TrEMBL record:
UniProt KW keywords: Heme, Iron, Metal-binding, Monooxygenase, Oxidoreductase
Pfam families: p450 (PF00067)
The protein's name in its UniProt record: Cytochrome P450
Organism expressing this protein natively: Natronosalvus rutilus
Family (UniProt): Belongs to the cytochrome P450 family.
InterPro entries per record: Cyt_P450, Cyt_P450_CS, Cyt_P450_E_grp-IV, Cyt_P450_sf, Cytochrome_P450_monoxygenase
Length: 432
């Protein structure tokens, strides 16, 4: 690799590991500010080059995407769990899977999902009492899991949802925090690995039972499960592939949305003037549905995802030599696209650490890929519109019923795991 690529100051043998361990998100922000647009980061056993400029992100994800592929390390970590799901599949397997899953996210389906989102959120909100202190993250995880369980799996049973919830916790726990412990092989009987294996077995059992029931009652649903079962019955995919897609959507479809919803609730609680404007917007219509225009709410969501992108780093690997910003990038180089740092780059955003939803009154004022919480290009998140609809309807339903107050524990301290989930409860108080 070209030694002239700049690198944040590190230590012999450890590289940047100590700085990353002390403050991973601050490290990313500082490295982008001080060493962008291209810099190298090294930790024991791993080195990668960061592309920290919107045009370079676009190069990797769109214009020169044939030179880059998903990082094999990600596939090695998640492949045993997600198999041929959309996060880990590649080549023709990914293209075929994307086409098979895509119909579940067509606009007509999304409108139907919106009704489920509204119903489930209202049911969760009605459990609150005036003055109650709520862990927004735990609450949001329960809500998003309930929604995705319904519209992806067609699951309504309480015990099934409990099994899925326990399994999701155990699976996520194996990948948190993001450190060398991720490299421990599954056959090593660590407590996290044992919980993980039991969780996967439990989930596989739930999915197998679900598929058996759905096949015994054809036409019983209009969800992703029905879409995939139809493809399997036509011979277009195997039951194992159905399982992989369902599990991918379950895990990817509830955790990231829960993080974003928690952030939005905390930000509005700590910015009462912004909350007052959203309250006025969402309470003005007699009813709210998937087609209701809520531009201020949408700007709050967009700003939330800029400040706290749930997926805060994307990784790729160069599969062909490239020249980027004057540096030679050999094939085999691992590449990082740091959403967290780019989203907070003062060269792109005024007061980048401030919560200012109205900066998005003119989204075209920013370069393409200055903002990319859902990735981009052909492998952009297939559930992007689903997630945005869920966030706007959930926020609208919450704020049509209650207002949010900050507490001394309304703090957001992200964990550097597969997602930027909080490292503990995020407490807010609700007022009728």
């Amino acid at each position: 690799m070209n030694e002239s690529i700049p690198e944040p100051v590190g230590l012999p043998l450890l590289g940047n590991a100590l700085s990353i361990g002390r403050d991973p998100f601050g490290f990313v922000e500082d490295a982008v500010a001080d060493h962008g647009p291209v810099f190298r980061v090294s930790v024991p056993g791993l080195s990668f080059v960061c592309y920290a400029e919107p045009s370079l992100v676009e190069r990797v994800l769109v214009t020169e995407r044939d030179r880059y592929e998903k990082d094999p390390r990600e596939r090695n970590l998640l492949g045993p769990l997600l198999g041929a799901g959309l996060l880990t599949a590649r080549g023709e397997t990914w293209e075929r899977g994307r086409k098979q899953v895509q119909p579940a996210f067509y606009p007509g389906r999304l409108r139907a999902y919106g009704e489920v989102m509204l119903e489930r959120t209202d049911g969760f909100v009605q459990r609150w009492s005036d003055g109650q202190r709520v862990d927004a993250y735990e609450w949001a995880r329960g809500l998003t899991l309930s929604i995705v369980g319904s519209v992806v799996f067609g699951v309504d049973g309480v015990e099934e949802m409990r099994t899925i919830s326990r399994a999701a916790d155990a699976i996520t726990g194996r990948f948190e925090p993001l450190s060398v412990t991720l490299e421990v092989p599954l056959w090593v009987p660590t407590p996290a690995n044992r919980r993980y294996r039991r969780a996967v077995d439990d989930l596989d059992g739930v999915i197998a039972d679900l598929l058996d029931r759905r096949r015994a009652s054809p036409g019983s649903g209009d969800d992703l499960c029905a879409t995939l079962l139809a493809a399997a019955d036509d011979g277009a995919m195997s039951d194992e592939q159905v399982r992989d897609h369902l599990l991918t959507m379950l895990l990817a479809g509830h955790e990231t949305t829960a993080i974003a919803l928690t952030c939005a609730m905390a930000l509005l609680a700590t910015h009462p003037d912004e909350q007052a404007r959203v309250l006025e917007e969402v309470r003005e219509p007699e009813t709210v549905d998937a087609g209701t225009a809520l531009p201020r709410t949408d700007r709050v969501i967009r700003e939330t995802l800029r400040l706290y992108p749930p997926t805060y780093l994307l990784f790729r690997q160069a599969i062909a030599d490239d020249e980027v910003a004057g540096y030679e990038i050999p094939a085999g180089t691992r590449i990082c696209l740091p959403q967290w740092g780019i989203h907070r780059d003062e060269r792109l955003f005024d007061a980048p650490r401030s919560f200012r939803p109205d900066r998005w009154l003119d989204p075209d004022a920013y370069p393409d890929f200055a903002y990319f919480p859902f990735g981009g290009g052909p492998r952009a998140c297939i559930g992007r519109r689903f997630a945005l609809l869920e966030l706007r309807l959930a926020l609208a339903t919450i704020l049509r019923t209650v207002s949010l107050e900050a507490t001394p524990e309304t703090e957001w301290s992200p964990t550097p795991a597969l997602t930027s989930r909080p490292d503990g409860p995020v407490w807010v108080r609700v007022r009728s």
